[in-house]
Write a structure and sequence with these properties.
Largest sheet: 4 strands, mixed
Strand order of the largest sheet: 1-2-3-4
Number of domains: 1
CATH class: Alpha Beta
Strand content: 5-15%
Distance between the termini: 26 Å
Structural class: alpha/beta
Number of strands: 4
Number of helices: 4
CATH topology: TIM Barrel
CATH superfamily: Glycosidases
Order of helices and strands: EEHHEHEH
Shape: globular
Length: about 210
């Protein structure tokens, strides 16, 4: 599925590394800037820092693609380093005091390391068939991390989907681009939707993801 660029968010990422993994990451500092004002600093313009135009609701980071499981200790992180890491991220005195956590909504099945498991990994029989959701209560460690974040006072959670499940897409893959079946203007070349419209079913899946977290 191709999604439009979200101009209301500015994102930056940091990377942790360790001896065991070249890129063990807690994707640091996803900066969320919410504004209803025109962009500043346009050609020929200037920035007036004495004028309030942009409201910043907080700063956060992403730990998608099973990075939360690394932070939990599934791959050898000691309890002492786990607490140190959480303090560095969330504690307002010992660390950055980040206040937003970005979650990843999975589309893969199966989900080896580096992928995110879908809550409906298999085609239930078409877009109009009753959904067959599966919830393991863990979501790649993200449920655990969400609860830990709440202990530090975090109350803003942002869930982001990189793709719909493969069976909902024109290229029948959760990788390599493609489109959500039913979206207008899908190129004829490589289109495997066969007339199916998965838009409502996918919207229902996203709502169900939030309900599972509730």
């Amino acid at each position: 599925m191709r999604l439009p660029s979200d101009k209301a968010h500015t994102r930056a990422y940091g990377i942790f590394s360790s001896r065991r993994w070249l890129t063990i990451t807690a994707i640091l500092a996803t900066f969320f800037v919410f504004t209803s004002q025109p962009a500043l600093g346009q050609a020929g313009g200037s920035v007036d820092f004495s004028t309030n135009l942009t409201r910043i609701d907080g700063f956060g980071f992403s730990e998608a693609f099973q990075r939360a499981a690394i932070m939990r200790g599934d791959y050898g992180l000691t309890p002492e380093n786990q607490r140190r890491l959480l303090d560095l991220l969330f504690d307002t005195e010992k660390g950055a005091g980040l206040s937003i956590l970005r979650l990843g909504i999975g589309a893969a099945y199966p989900a080896p390391f580096d992928l995110q498991l879908s809550i409906q990994p298999n085609d239930p029989g078409g877009p109009d068939a009753p959904p067959q959701y599966e919830w393991n209560g863990d979501d790649g460690g993200q449920v655990w991390l969400s609860k830990e974040a709440m202990k530090y006072g975090v109350n803003k959670f942002y869930a982001n989907a990189w793709s719909a499940p493969a069976y909902m897409k024109s290229n029948k893959s959760f990788n390599n681009g493609g489109y959500l079946c039913g979206v207008p203007g899908i190129p004829a070349s490589g289109n495997q939707c066969a007339g199916a419209d998965w838009r409502q079913a996918y919207a229902n899946l996203l709502v169900q993801y939030v309900k599972f977290y509730q």
